[in-house]
Amino acid sequence: MPVYLLGNEIAFPPADQAEQGLLAVGGDLSPERLLAAYSCGIFPWYSERDPILWHSPDPRFVLTAETLRIPKRLRRRLNANPFRLTMDSAFGEVITRCARARRPGQRGTWITAEMSRAYTELHRLGFAHSVETWSDRVLVGGLYGVSLGGAFFGESMFAERPDASKIAFVMLVRQLERWGIGLIDCQIETKHLARFGAVSWPRSRYLIELQAALSKPTRPGRWEWDWAPHDS
């Protein structure tokens, strides 16, 4: 299985050459390289003591906005309007909480200090976005990811109250659909996202659909709801 060593040039080998998901090692987390990676179906994922590792898994776990499925119990919670939701209001705090969140079977976090700085810079440039869930004035859940063209690349979420991240996710997908951003990259399969209708695609299909999504204009800058999130 070839694993490529990246140099200073902002370039990646073809994503379909990642036989077991891992494609390349090295490089940096500059905004230019990160955006190039996402545009090619590649993302960074590594631990604190590792070099930067670049992945393109096969299959790819994907949700499309029109196939979003909301479990009945969660729909009742949505109708009860338990939280206040914002967008791009506390990106730094969201990524920090995601890094601190304890996850079953996971020791430590892949959201290193280097990753946090890199995605915070992407946020400053208008390409990385967050959704925040508040109980009164307390941040209790949220998520963040990267958006290019008609695609949103989900990175991580956290919840400190029941359903806080789930409600953030559902409302984000609804908003993305209104903006014509229909491809949501979930990267790796999880039971949590499968409940919402995410499915595994062959990487070959994902790469084709990604290029179609990237033909749409990117929506940069700070995001805001263009609807009241609990109206539907």
Portion of residues within helices? 25-40%
The radius of gyration over CA amounts to: 17 Å
Amount of beta strand: 25-35%
Structural class: alpha+beta
Task: Strand order, main sheet: write it out.
Answer: 6-7-8-9-10-5-11
Mean pLDDT: 94
Major sheet characteristics: 7 strands, mixed
Distance, first to last CA? 48 Å
Write the element-wise H/E pattern from the N-terminal end onward: EEHEEEHEHHEEEHEHEH
Explain how this protein is built.
This protein is of the alpha+beta class and 232 residues long. Helices cover 31% and strands 25% of the residues. It has helices spanning 31-39, 72-80, 91-100, 113-124, 164-178, 191-194, 203-214, and strands at residues 4-6, 22-26, 43-44, 53-55, 60-64, 84-87, 128-135, 138-148, 151-159, 183-187, 199-201. The chain has a seven-stranded mixed β-sheet with strand order 6-7-8-9-10-5-11, sandwiched between helices. Strand 7 (128-135) and strand 8 form a beta hairpin. The mean pLDDT is 94.
